[in-house]
Amino acid sequence: MKDLVWGDILSVGVDEIDEDHRKLVNIFNLLNHAVMDEESPEYLAAILEELINCTAWHFSHEERLMLKYGYEEREAHKTAHHELIKAARELQQEILQADKLLADKDIGFLERWLTEHILTDDQRLGSFLSQEM
Ligand SMILES: [Fe+2]
Ligand SMILES: [Fe+2]
Fold first, then answer.
1. What is the pLDDT of residues 45-68, one digit of tens each?
2. Distance, CA 101 to ligand 1 centroid (Å)?
3. For residues 34 and 27, what is the distance between their CA atoms, to the nearest angstrom?
């Protein structure tokens, strides 16, 4: 798979959120490279754990900003975060239980998992916060 390249399309217009997203994109690329380099299952699992934990931390960051600035879509956005973490944990469990390696389709899933939320829900949040902060 090709690297995810950071660009204006992913920027939500709020520096502190963009910084987090950049970090997540970097970890995703690290994982992608590790899969291509056929790193050990333990190493792949460690990066996936890092990606999920950093994402969960980032979600709390956005949720604090939503609360602080009274974002109307806060509950729906929080639900979306919850679902995303759940989906990633399910993939993680599936890999651990089946003792299988991450496949290209898993990387494809994680790419959509990461970018689709940024391009939709986070863009709306970014437009709101850019006016309020
Ligand atoms: Fe979000
Ligand atoms: Fe985000």
1. 999 999 999 999 999 999 999 999
2. 28
3. 10
